[in-house]
Amino acid sequence: MIEDDIYRASSQYRLWSYTESSLQSLRATTNTVASERVRAALRRSREQQSATSSAAGTPQPGSDMDGKNKDEKEIECLTPEEELVLVRYYCEKTLELGETYRPPMPTMARATAIQYLRRFYITNSPMTYHPKSIMACALFVATKTENYYMSLRQFADGIPGETSPEDVIAPEFLLMQGLRFTFDIRHPFRGLEGGVMELQAIADGQGQPAPHLPHETAEDLQQGLLSIAPPPTPSKSMSDRIAVAHGKTRDLLKTAAQMTDAYFLYTPSQIWLSAFLVADRPLAEFLLDVKLGGPVTATIPTPETDENGLLNPLYEIRSKLHRVLTECSALLQSYTPLSSDPVQMKNLKRIAKKLYHCQNPEKVNLKRESAQAPVSQPDSGAVTSESESERLAKKRKLEQEQMARQGNDVFGPDLVQRTKP
Amino acid sequence: MALSPFSSRSPSMTVHSPNTAIRLRATAAQNAASGTAAVAASKPVPHGDRELTEQLNIDVRERYVKDKKVGEGTYAVVFVGHLRDNPSSLVAIKKIKVNAEYKDGLAMDAVREVKYLQELKHPNVIALHDVFSSKDQNLSLVLEFLPGGDLEMLIKDSDIQYGVADIKAWMGMLARGVWWCHENFVLHRDIKPNNLLIAADGEVKLADFGLARSFADPGFRMTSQVITRWYRPLELLYGAPHYSGAVDVWSMGMVFAELLIRVPFVAGNTDLDQVSKICEAFGTPTEDNWPGVSKLPHYIPTDKSQVVPLQGRDFFMRQFPTAGPVGADLLMAMCALDPRKRRTATQCLQHSWWTVDPRPTQNENLPRKSGGTKKMGDDLARRDLDEGLFKSAARQLDFGMK
Fold this sequence. Notes:
- The structure holds 2 protein chains of 2 kinds.
- Chain A is an all-alpha fold.
- Chain A has helices spanning 3-9, 11-16, 20-56, 63-72, 80-100, 107-123, 131-145, 152-157, 165-169, 172-178, 189-203, 218-226, 238-254, 256-259, 262-265, 268-279, 281-292, 315-333, 342-358, 386-405.
- In chain A, helix 6 (107-123) packs across helix 7, helix 16 packs across helix 17 and helix 16 crosses helix 18 (315-333).
- Chain B starts with 19 loop residues before the first helix and ends with a helix.
- Chain B has helices at residues 20-41, 52-61, 108-117, 151-156, 164-183, 234-237, 246-261, 271-282, 313-319, 324-334, 345-349, 372-381, 391-400; strands at residues 64-72, 76-83, 86-96, 128-133, 139-144, 186-187, 196-198, 204-206, 213-214.
- At the A-B interface, helix 1, helix 2, helix 3, helix 7 and helix 10 of A face helix 1, helix 2, helix 3, strand 9 and helix 13 of B.
């Protein structure tokens, strides 16, 4: 039984791992089906409208004309690429939403929520279910599955704007169904911590050689680490360098790894190693050398042999891994946050506008009990007004004070303390 | 299955097969590799106005037929059912009740149970074949059918005779199940005889993951309000916010002791009583035998005159003669008061007891009892910790505390 076997038993591998092409075709199918549905639903709602208005017998001036024009014009639906941009935007929003809570939600809960969203939108279209309504629910479900439980009321109160607990919980079942009732997400964060600890141990002269390289001593490893190529940005000491690379990698894992298809295409260890390569290539390659031996040469194996005259027995694995990690690094590096890029933001606004016209009218209201509640307008920007955020800040402050008074409250702030390891 | 882009673990391919786990994984891997491509090829035909995931859910639901109700608790109703196209393949269907008092969506017990059973595939962990929802938004778990009842039933039935070879077989299966959980970084946190269910072939299965959770990251707090009292280790009774798989190993030790003497070994009436009974039985924890114990939040200092020295091997041999000296040694290692000195599940499996005489009884020769289906129904429907005054505390504490 090796770790790989355990990973292959996970639902993340069994149900949520794809090749690039299978992922693409799955999304294309989802988009096609949803587009057909949207067109049919919009047609139905128009027919209904015209039926009621003619039944009322008092056609409003001009309404007839408008109706005809719309009927003739085929509704333009989102493309799979546009859907993906929209989902990505709401993934970024999820990260921000988690940040607004006091204390901020743990990275793990936010990352899990983002992966829930991404998984949900493989088989569901934003045209059917607006990501805005699914996003909050995904984060709430993540607080349950990641052991960061808070009450629904408390959670809803933390959301900027008017969001009721019922709004948050309404799509829960739908979301869980879309997740195929698999809640466990295997993140790359723990693997990174382990790798960093190992490097630190090597730097301290406490390194352990890989089982197949027993001749290496802790001193050899330490010397090897000290003689690697300099870091991208100069650092005071090896510990410092490791800490900088650690921080950069963590940031990549919190952002680029979440907002791209990395989790669908690569394993957690491939993801963190790729991010580590982006952060500090010589350091990451050193770690790979320690684990798998021998540097990878670009061409066919040269007489790169060990003292017994044998090639590194793991040469094949190392080369294969090199290819995978290079691909994954490129994917991570391709990511730039939407909100910091005016071109992407402009595109997003266009998509949001387009979505406004192709939102499935029959799926807007997700609340279980109130079928006749007014249809809420899909909101494109999710911008909170100045006064609104002020009001919420006040509300939160009051709540925090109240919590501080009830020192022993089970949800009190002192219980969520985290001591840095 | 052609319709579904996702593999399902429906029992048609698992029942009657002793090494299901391996086969399942092989099938799953195939599906992961080829299954997704199949979807694109066989474009899902929209049925009426159903979304793709709705349709998949209906496909799963229609694969099963409910036969009769076999258990009901506050939390769930349990039915025996079968695969629609194979009436001989029985399953247990646990329908989770929507809790009217609990407004926060799907209850935590259900979330935890589903989360962990989806991941843990092992011959000694109850298999979750499928999950589906019904029109009224109730969740149903399709679980392995385990008609052999549970270990509690066998322990309590004075008509049933069993010996150390049988105990070795049962304990071996329990230890492997717990090992698998820990290997996957999952703490069960409610091991006790009536959560150890028995399959038709005699295999013991760890069930009820309603209190399970993943190992916490270093520094994160966990609730100590877990594990049924008689099986709860001292570190939890003392309120330790950080703990490990050692808590489950203690419970295993208590089950082992109970199998040997056929009554719960340390049965306190209250948490305080449980602490004093443990100390009387195994010795008093001190800073010498358990460094750091006095720093635990609910640690109760013992008067110097009352200190009982830690029990040695001869105590365990005297108290549990049926186990034999090697068995007593394993039991002692599972019952170390200091969790750092307790054996891990892996170390338990490496103990020499498993290889000395007598050999564990073969599954088909293990003592069994009829009426197990009803017992399974009760076990799967029950959630002890949720009843009475503990109800809301268990939920809140667990998730409020980090």
